[in-house]
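Narrative of accomplishments. A recurring question from our advisory board has been how the design workflow behaves on a single, concrete structure rather than in aggregate. To address it, we present the structure tokens for one chain from the evaluation set, followed by the sequence designed for it. No filtering or post-editing was applied between the two.
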């Protein structure tokens, strides 16, 4: 890693670290950049005016009117500079983050150089680094698995040796325990192929009942109404997938920290009462998804007529339309190639958020960068139509 890459990395880390400091009115360093810069400019100008009169042995009130005007001017200029810096950093970081999400392979060399560079870090920072690398590895594997899902019919025809899985698991533990280790792409592919061949812990699907000779005509109509694509729920060690659900209501039970993927849902309602790690929604139509607070992010792609009730770190929507969001976010709501997005605050009976939900109506659209005109792709939902949802409904 050259000097320019190190400088850019340090600049971004310093900005993100400072931006995530909890707001405290008594601590100016936790204020937003415009207020912080304006405060220190005003204090510095006032102190300079005081020592100026003290040096020339003048009363404190001497020249107070022009000095006040000068202090106000300096404060306003400092506030403007803070706004400019915050806007520049936010815009640049948003563009970089979006590019990284689209082309993660371009940053493999950058991440490898970062892991191999010698750093003097404490034990706590080592733990944070290991946890961050583990999370990124799991998200990357999950993203690849969703892009190229293995056929469900072939999972039982192929097999993976338990000894091979155990060896891969031991290698992964050694890799995660060493903060200076290099992530090998070939090793990631081995893990991905092994995960795709592992048998599901359980799977079940709705089947058509075999007709008896004495079946009536009405029963025959019921059988004909069953959809051809069977509802499938599979569960592996770290993820749970729901697919091919039509005209049904499902309560998806599980353990906190599991990843969830929902694909090919139509006219259905899915309730997730546990705290998932990451939720992926793809090709969901005219359905409702009610989620307990999510640890990481919610990804929505190729959906329409969807109602999502979610509280997460970040919500991303790609190539979707007519989406109703009842949300709470710590980070941001990011949309791209979307239309008809409506947002409202997250309201679920029996759930109280641990943070202030003030960013639910701050939507960032990569297809609408101007701020001079209102964005036609999203809007705040009419307050009279806001709803309160319940995770206990069956």
């Amino acid at each position: 890693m050259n000097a320019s890459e190190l400088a850019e990395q340090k600049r971004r880390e310093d900005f993100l670290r400072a931006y995530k400091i909890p707001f405290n009115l008594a601590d100016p360093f936790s204020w937003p950049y415009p207020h912080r810069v304006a405060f220190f400019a005003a204090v510095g100008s006032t102190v300079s005016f005081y020592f100026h009169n003290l040096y020339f042995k003048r009363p404190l009130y001497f020249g107070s009117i022009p000095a006040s005007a000068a202090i106000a001017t300096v404060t306003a200029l400092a506030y403007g500079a803070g706004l400019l810096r915050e806007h520049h950093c936010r815009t640049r970081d948003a563009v970089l983050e979006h590019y990284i999400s689209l082309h993660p392979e371009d940053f493999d060399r950058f991440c490898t150089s970062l892991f191999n560079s010698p750093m003097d870090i404490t034990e706590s920072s080592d733990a944070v680094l290991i946890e961050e690398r583990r999370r990124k590895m799991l998200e990357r594997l999950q993203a690849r698995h969703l892009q190229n899902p293995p056929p469900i019919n072939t999972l039982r025809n192929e097999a993976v040796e338990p000894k091979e899985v155990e060896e891969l698991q031991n290698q992964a533990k050694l890799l995660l325990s060493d903060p200076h280790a290099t992530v090998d792409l070939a090793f990631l592919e081995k893990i991905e192929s092994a995960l795709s061949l592992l048998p599901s812990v359980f799977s079940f699907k709705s089947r058509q009942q075999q007709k008896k000779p004495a079946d009536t005509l009405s029963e025959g109509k019921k059988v004909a109404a069953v959809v051809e694509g069977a509802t499938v729920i599979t569960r592996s060690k770290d993820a749970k997938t729901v697919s091919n659900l039509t005209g049904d209501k499902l309560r998806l039970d599980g353990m906190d920290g599991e990843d969830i993927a929902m694909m090919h849902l139509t006219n259905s309602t899915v309730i997730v009462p546990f705290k998932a790690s990451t939720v992926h929604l793809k090709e969901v139509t005219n359905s409702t998804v009610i989620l307990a607070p999510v640890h990481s992010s919610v990804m929505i792609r190729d959906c329409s007529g969807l109602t999502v009730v979610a509280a997460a770190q970040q919500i991303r929507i790609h190539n979707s339309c007519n989406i109703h969001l009842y949300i709470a976010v710590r980070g941001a709501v990011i949309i791209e190639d979307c239309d008809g997005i409506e947002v409202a605050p997250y309201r679920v009976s029996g759930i109280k958020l641990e943070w202030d939900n003030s960013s639910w109506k701050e939507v960032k659209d990569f297809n609408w960068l101007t701020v001079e005109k209102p964005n036609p792709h999203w809007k705040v939902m009419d307050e009279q139509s806001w709803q309160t949802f319940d995770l206990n409904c069956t």
